Description:
This protein is an alpha+beta fold. Helix content is about 30%, strand content about 20%.
Amino acid sequence: xxKITSFTIxxxxxxxxxxxxxxxxxxxxxxxTFDIRMTNPNEEPVMNTAEMHAIEHLAATFxxxxxxxxEKTLYFGPMGCRTGFYLLLIGDxxxxxxxxxxxxxxxxxxxxxxxxxxxxARDCGNYLxxxxxxxxxxxxxxxxxxxxxxxxxxxxxxx
Length: 159
């Protein structure tokens, strides 16, 4: 079998950033998949499931309620390796196009002080596995260390 595209990226040279992972067509409609890489692969500890789960609930809720991107958001969810998240948007985008959206999203998570949406037994199959303080910490770290002064090496996969 051929490797899928995401397994051909040099994870030894990959740094936290915001990357276009792939572009697909769904009929006549372009779909862009983003790699929101929050930790340095194979160098930093991976994120724990509780904080990733909290980020997922907050980000999915934020994005689907966003005035501009709500109807363009197809999916926001964790990477299996627990170093980041995938975001699928309807449209043909480059990473730089959504930096303002990501700043808004991660500031929202970093400042969030309410009950996590969907964090109940009725609404979620694993509602007890949430860690809001750590989700806020990681969101603030990503915002400050990556998004606020994002460089080209954090927007394009290493060659």
